[in-house]
Amino acid sequence: MKKIANYGHTTLKWIQEIGLLVIAISTVVAVGIEIKVMFDAGTVTLADLLLLFIYLEVLAMVSIYLESGKLPVRIPLYIAIVALARYLVLDMKGMDSSKVIGISAAALILAVTVLVIRYGHIRFPYDGHTKESQ
Question: What does 107-131 look like in DSSP terms, one character per residue?
């Protein structure tokens, strides 16, 4: 039974690694496509830069996960904050004020969540984590 469990664990790790590789390759392709769009348009907008930043954060998240085997909760929160900011930049003119306030509030809540998590990591570190390693 232990042999089957080890085989299953190894198989899941391989599937995870392949999935991360697919995500990384897809993100690099998306960056290339976005750069081509900016080049063809002859201009770089704030929305383009925010999208590139989202792609960079996804690559950083994959890298951190591959290095440590752990995914810090803060990184997807950062990605969500930037995605909300990009959404506001792109569609603000077509939104009513309540929607703008709602999306802004969501970004603020995510930012506060990051601060609370960061404070918790410093004030109450996990095993093996110290204030110096943060």
Answer: HHHHHHHHHHHHHHHHHSPPTT--G
pTM equals 0.73
Structure tokens at 31: 């960056």
Question: Could you tell me which residues come within 8 angstroms of residue 99 by beta carbon, excluding any fewer than 6 positions away?
Answer: none
3-class DSSP state for residue 50?
helix
| Dihedral pair phi/psi, residue 10, rounded to 5° | -60, -45
Closest CA to 76 of 43, 37, 40, 117: 117
Residue 69 DSSP class: S
62-121 pLDDT, tens digit per residue, is 999 888 888 778 889 999 999 999 899 888 888 899 999 999 999 999 999 999 999 988
Say how far residue 107 (Cα) sits from the centre of its chain: 14
Q: How far apart are CA 95 and CA 101, in angstroms?
A: 10
